[in-house]
Amino acid sequence: MPYYGFNFLWMFSTWRGRPAQPPDERALDFLAAFGFNFVRIPTDYRFWTRDFDYFHPNESVWQKIDSYLAACRARGIHMSLNLHRAPGYCINRNDLEKHNLWTDELAQDAFVFLWESFARRYQDVPAADLSFDLLNEPPNPGQYGLTRENHAALMRRTVAAIRAINPRRPIQIDGLGGGHLAMPELADLDVIHSGRGYQPMNLSHWGAHWWRGWQVCSQPPTYPGAEWDGKIWNRETLRVFYQPWREVQAAGRPIHIGEFGCFNKIENDTALAWLGDLLSLYREFGWGYSLWNFSGPFGIANHGRPNTTYEKIHGFNVDRRLLDLLIENRI
To answer: What is the rounded CA–CA span in Å between residue 80 and residue 170?
Structure first.
């Protein structure tokens, strides 16, 4: 997975009736100009589904996804299509779901149906242009009825259904525990394993309003030296954290970091020191990455972290130091 790029939130959430957005052609031009070749599109099934009627999607909505893919292909950028909110599960506000992806047969059938539908819709799109990222950030084992066994069974079933339609479609599976836990039990499956770059969480998510775990700390962390989860975090701590993923890689499976980034309440010098260690390790391991996101509080443009110097590039206020880090750590 020598793919490097960004997440774009054009069909991310129906919160407050937010419509699906058109592709940001100017941002994609920026990516192409600086040699980035990957875009991840997290989607929310509620854009095309009403009242949990999973099996009668409004396929006219999918024309937006068609436009994202066309805009990426026109620039030689690979697109990864992801279900961020799937029938029966989302890492954010899972209480909004009527069914449970790991305990309800209806939700599982709907999940497979959606991926079969996308496989047919994009059957003629080359593997180099499009991949399927099945489910964003499944929970920890024991949450919402998920076990390693029933999750692995659902992933195997879905992969088989897609491959029955298109044997060559690249497929990504996210790690458990919000994307952090590797899945060696699926190392025999011909898929890409997608990890995360958010540890230590109290650094990457300091001040986040949607996740309050950071509030157990009395002050913003520094780096190196952040204390979290019983560890003092530095480059070697990060190396140890990713060892299970390296074992999956050693078993012959590609690894890609589908999301990473730092929320904008941390001093930029601290964020960049941490991001520099993360990115240098990804380069050492031969892993691609996808920053969450392009423009916004985790992004490369207009992120708003304190003490950032921006440079105007292609019409965007860009954190040049972060841009240079991203470029330096590509293979």
So the answer is: 9
129-144 b/e (C-beta count within 10 Å ≥ 16 → b): bbbbbbbbbbbeeeee
Q: Which residues pair with 219 in a beta bridge?
A: none
Q: What does the pLDDT average to over 166-178?
A: 98
Q: Tokens standing for 262? A: 């730092």
pLDDT score, position 15: 82
Question: What is the average pLDDT score of the chain?
Answer: 97
Q: Long-range contacts made by residues 95-98, C-beta under 8 angstroms, separation at least 24?
A: 98/52
Q: What is the mean pLDDT of residues 102-115?
A: 98
Q: What is the rounded distance in angstroms from the CA atom of residue 160 to the CA atom of residue 22?
A: 32
> For 47, phi and psi rounded to 5 degrees?
-65, -35
What the chain holds in terms of domains, given with CATH numbers, is: 1-181 (3.20.20.80), 196-257+265-286+302-331 (no CATH)
